[in-house]
Design a protein that fits this description.
Elements lengths: L12 E4 L15 H6 L1 H7 L3 E4 L3 E2 L11 E5 L6 H13 L3 E6 L9 H6 L13 E2 L14 E4 L4 E4 L14 H16 L4 E4 L20 H13 L5 E5 L8 H5 L8 E3 L22 H14 L7 E2 L9 H4 L7 H14 L4 E5 L20 H12 L4 H11 L36 H6 L4 H14 L1 H5 L1 E5 L6 E8 L2 E8 L5 E4 L6 E5 L9 E4 L4 E5 L4
Helix pairs in contact: 5-6, 10-14
The chain binds 1-O-alpha-D-glucopyranosyl-D-fructose and calcium ion.
Length: 539
């Protein structure tokens, strides 16, 4: 079962947050034509799939995750013709496009919700979830998940902002409308989808159930039958509620649901257990090893992993678990890339990660404007949290940190735009740029380029068995990948210390590393953030 090869087994996905990627028409907002003009750059990096976060019509209360019309492109980003041109031009370069599907909720400005809130007997009323009373269910963006509509004398459910009412998947008419819409985008030539918070669609709010509801997998199988079947599409579900026990239900090939999911266990390791992500805790390297190896082994024959450090909801990885301060930024960013891209699964690169973009660490809370961030600031200040401590948590964890404009060059607006961007540039935009990275053979960019290409050419990297080495080592995250004709060793010093790693290297040679001049012996002396890939292949 694990041997069936799919095209995404050798692919690397590049995630674009269009608003912050590249502005082609000088309004300070990234757009589709801006993406088109950077396709040669992405081709050079070597990626073969682009995931676009939502570009549909939207009032953008939540960065486009509040869709008011699934069938049209937000004019800020361009037109349907621009989108078709993007599909065409990228396919000429061998790059596929996957779209973001937000199926758990719509915008309150969506026609369905406008109708639904007219009267209780409107045919669209039952597209959403209503209650005569509120319960104690909480929104993921703080506060109650219920919003009162006086003229209906009813509350509607919203797991996110009150402008994002939750859809009622128990209604077959709603489900059919959704499938029709998905097929519309498939007919435009997209190669697949990322499915936003998909584990919420089977919710049972009156039983207090949010994720993993009883009908979830039936809905996904129904969607597969109506939309994905026989079309060779790549689908990835965003599932904060995934565990190694329920993950195979989504991606085990015989289940006919999705190609893979995003699980977030490693992402939750630096918060206090039971707390929110603003409740900070140091990352323990052994926890990280344990979580990754659990997922690598757990889905070995049972599904497929996605591999990511970053996305538009997360802070920058080099600032988070690397070292974004001066000299070690490059070394630690490369180490993190090697550590992740050595594993089995489909890797995702989030825009700017390939040049080691950092968190902006804005100097005060007012700089942070994302809806989730603003709500949490309000809630925590009201509760009496220390503003200084809160600012630090926001700097380290806010979604805004991954959304600063892409740093193309050191001109006034970072080459992102020739006018003031919609959101603040990171203060280091003049020193960390694509232009600089492309000029420097030794840049983070070229490490990513190497790793992306290695996945296309090396079968062991794609499908080899994973085995963790030396769990107890306090600084080194090392593992082995084995296929019938090769063994790869990936050895990463996760910390800024010098340390040793014992390994019989007599039959091994260096395939890649982030330092020069490596002396192999049976005790490898590792420098700060040193990362090495070794192989036993002869030629
Ligand atoms: O995010 C899922 C989600 O639950 C987020 O609230 C996530 O937990 C949070 O950002 C981390 O603090 C998805 C999208 O990726 C996100 O951008 C949307 O805001 C959200 O769904 C609602 O559609
Ligand atoms: Ca623009």
């Amino acid at each position: 079962m694990g041997d069936i090869q799919k095209w995404w087994h050798s692919s690397v996905v590049y995630q674009i947050y269009p608003k912050s990627f590249n502005d082609s028409n000088s309004d300070g907002i990234g757009d589709i034509q801006g993406i088109i003009s950077k396709l040669p750059y992405l081709k050079y990096l070597g990626i073969d799939v682009i995931w676009l976060t939502p570009i549909y019509q939207s009032p953008e209360i939540d960065g486009g995750y509040d869709i008011s019309d699934y069938y049209s492109i937000n004019p800020k980003y361009g037109t349907m013709t621009d989108f078709e041109e993007l599909i065409q031009k990228s396919s000429e370069l061998g790059i596929k496009i996957i779209m973001d599907l937000v199926l758990n909720h719509t915008s309150d400005l969506h026609r369905w919700f406008q109708e639904a809130s007219k009267s209780r007997d409107n045919p669209y009323h039952d597209y959403y979830i209503w209650s005569d009373e509120s319960t104690n269910l909480q929104s993921n963006f703080t506060g109650s998940a219920w919003e009162y509509v006086p003229h209906l004398e009813q509350f509607y459910l919203h797991f996110y902002s009150k402008e994002q009412p939750d859809l009622n998947w128990e209604n077959p008419n709603l489900r059919n409308e959704i499938y029709k819409m998905i097929n519309f985008w498939i007919s435009k030539g997209v190669a697949g989808f990322r499915l936003d918070v998909i584990d919420l669609i089977g919710k049972k709010p009156f039983e207090g159930i949010k994720e993993n509801g009883p009908q979830l997998h039936n809905y996904l199988q129904e969607m597969y039958t109506h939309c994905f079947k026989g079309k060779n599409l790549m689908t990835v579900g965003e599932t904060w509620g995934a565990t190694i026990e329920n993950a195979p239900l989504y991606s085990r090939p015989d289940r006919n649901e999705l190609s893979m999911i995003f699980q977030f266990e490693q992402i939750n390791l630096d918060k206090i257990p039971g707390g929110q992500r603003w409740d900070l805790k140091e990352l323990d390297l052994q926890d990280l090893k344990q979580v990754f190896s659990k997922w690598q082994l757990g889905l070995e024959n049972n599904g497929w992993n996605s591999l990511f450090w970053n996305n538009h909801d997360l802070p920058r990885i080099v600032s988070r678990w690397g070292n974004d301060n001066g000299y070690y930024r490059t070394l630690s960013a490369k180490m993190l890339a090697i550590l992740l891209h050595g594993m089995k699964g489909t890797p995702y690169i989030y825009q700017g990660e390939e040049i080691g973009m950092t968190n902006p660490n804005f100097p005060s809370l007012e700089y942070y404007s994302d809806i989730e961030t603003k709500n949490i600031i309000e809630e925590r200040l009201a509760k009496g949290d220390d503003p200084k401590k809160l600012l630090r948590a926001i700097q380290l964890k806010a979604r805004d940190s991954g959304r600063t404009p892409m740093q193309w060059d050191d001109t006034k607006f970072a080459g992102f735009s020739d006018t003031e961007p919609w959101t603040q540039l990171s203060p280091n935009f003049e020193s960390i740029t694509v232009k600089q990275a492309l000029k420097d053979n030794d840049s983070i960019f070229y490490t990513y380029q190497f790793l992306v290409n290695l996945r296309k050419t090396n079968g062991t990297l794609r499908l080899g068995k994973f085995e963790l080495l030396e769990f107890d080592h306090p600084h080194v995250f090392a593992y082995r990948r084995t296929s019938h004709n090769e063994t790869l060793y990936i050895i990463c010093n996760f910390h800024q210390v010098e340390t040793d790693f014992s390994l019989d290297t007599s039959n091994l040679k260096v395939l890649y590393s982030n330092y020069q001049d490596i002396q192999l012996s049976n005790k490898i002396g590792l420098r700060p953030y040193e990362a090495i890939i070794l192989t036993d292949k002869k030629e």
